[in-house]
Design goal:
By secondary structure, the chain is an all-beta fold. The chain is built from no helices and eleven strands.
């Protein structure tokens, strides 16, 4: 199982980034994929999750209305569109899936929101 995040960077407040999580090594379409983030000195927190095959989507209250999670099962990829970014969104963003009670993580992609 491999998860590879990309798309992070430095952006000004109010800007946007599209994060990608490319997956391999498992039957991607069957599994829930989640995005987490971890800011310096803080615990890792759930940002958004998307179920398999058109199932439920959920968001943290702090990103509702600004972030959108989606998936393309043909490309084995999950996206996180982040809009109206704020300095408090600065963190390393990770994607995650759980298979047979084992959590798998990518290496993360850094998002920095600063003027």
């Amino acid at each position: 199982v491999q998860l590879v995040e990309s798309g992070g960077g430095l952006v000004q407040p109010g800007g946007s980034l599209r994060l990608s999580c490319a997956a391999s090594g498992f039957t991607f379409s069957r599994y829930v994929i989640k995005w987490y983030r971890q800011a310096p000195g803080k615990e890792r927190e759930l940002v958004a999750g998307i179920s398999s095959r058109g199932g439920p989507i959920n968001y943290a209250d702090s990103v509702k209305g600004r972030f959108t999670i989606s998936r393309d099962d043909r490309k084995n990829t999950v996206y996180l569109q982040t809009n109206s970014l704020k300095p408090e969104d600065t963190a390393v963003y990770y994607c995650n899936t759980r298979i047979w009670s084992t959590d798998y993580w990518g290496q993360g992609t850094q998002v920095t929101v600063s003027s």
